[in-house]
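User: I've been going back and forth on whether these two constructs are worth ordering. Before I decide, could you fold them both?

Assistant: Sure. I'll take them in the order you sent them. The first construct and its structure tokens:
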Amino acid sequence: MNRPRVLLADDHNLLLDGIKLMLEPEFDLVGCVSDGRALLDAAQDLKPDLILLDISMPVLNGIDAAVQLRKLLPTAKLIFVTMHGDADFVIEAFRAGAMGYVIKRAAASELLTAIREVLNGNHYVSPLITRGAIDYFLAASTLKSKLADTLTVRQREILQLVAEGRSRKEIASILNLSVKTVEFHKASLMRQLHLRKTAELTLYAIDHGVIASARSLAE
């Protein structure tokens, strides 16, 4: 019997090393990537059965990557392994196509269980997610995401890259756009969000989980 093929996506190398050691006896680890765009490329090339991904990843965050993965590789199952335990993140992850959600500090004890449940067609949510968060998730299951309603996919991409401090030329190169098109999308984004400064865009991105704060990355 073939072992399930697993692709890992996280920009914390120590965590990846630990997950590799945990999974190697039971699963076929087909690749490891450290940003959301590399994840999309690797998923198309490697066709994994299961993808473990973080929410806060550079270039393209895990939530937006998951939305695109659902279209590119609809048969792959997604489990988020993240430090974010707030209800808003849980809701966004499952809306984006997740079947599992594991808090990083509990990954050593929960991850294998989560993977087995998801591969069997079930959902898994870390017990460390507060009861209130789960209740909020269930109550809000028919509601639409405010951020998803407000911004287009392209605007979310621009938002993350600007908030990461990338230049217009860098963004244009990453997204295969002209510099003028990047400027247009950024200006439109700031008007839509009623923001005036790039620093305000960065704060907005942190508040909505598009990028991690410096403090979160240090934890």
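The second construct, handled the same way:
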Amino acid sequence: MRAFIKEKTERIRNNRVVNGIHLYSFGLLRRMYDWVLSWAYSKYSSLALFILAFCESFFFPVPPDVLLMSLSISRPKKAWFYALICSLGSIIGAFGGFLIGYLFYETIGASIIAALGYGPEFIKVGAMFNENAFIAILTAAFTPIPFKVFTIAAGVWKVSLSTLFLASLIGRSGRFFLIGGLIYFFGPRIKTFIDKYFNLLTIIFFVLVGLGFYLIQFLI
């Protein structure tokens, strides 16, 4: 296993850009963010939220929180319903990430990790799983740490499905229902703040991701 991971690490480190475009470049990320928000005005908004949450669990870089917030702001009384849809999509998507890591890491998983630029962190996740896989996945599910890295890694390191499910259920539901509750009480002010300070928040996001990967090692 160590030889396998070492080989994949080198491949990931040498392929952090896909077709010359890093998926976390500010311009591309901003366009993706705006595209995600555009679904809030569609009659298929609930389905879009489910699909976004599903895909974000194993490859899509924009978190479903942004669409969840927009929909909840437009229909505050349905905030809990949207939180439920988002939670279900994300939890089911976690198994998609597991499947990629378990069966298709060489053909699909490694490319996703490389495109997102999380090669070194991906290797650290394996060590975290050896200590306490439940805490590691739970922390990633609830915090800004990229959940997709952990779901794919869960398949590579063969974490039990029950551990993946329980940690995802608690972490993802806790996160999205918390957002739904905040929107219910504070409304449009949160979205206005995000739109105004998007670039700053993006930088803070990456700082939190880095700190999260560092601090999680002390939790396990």
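Notes on the second construct follow. The CA atoms of residues 153 and 183 lie 32 Å apart. The chain has one domain: 2-219.
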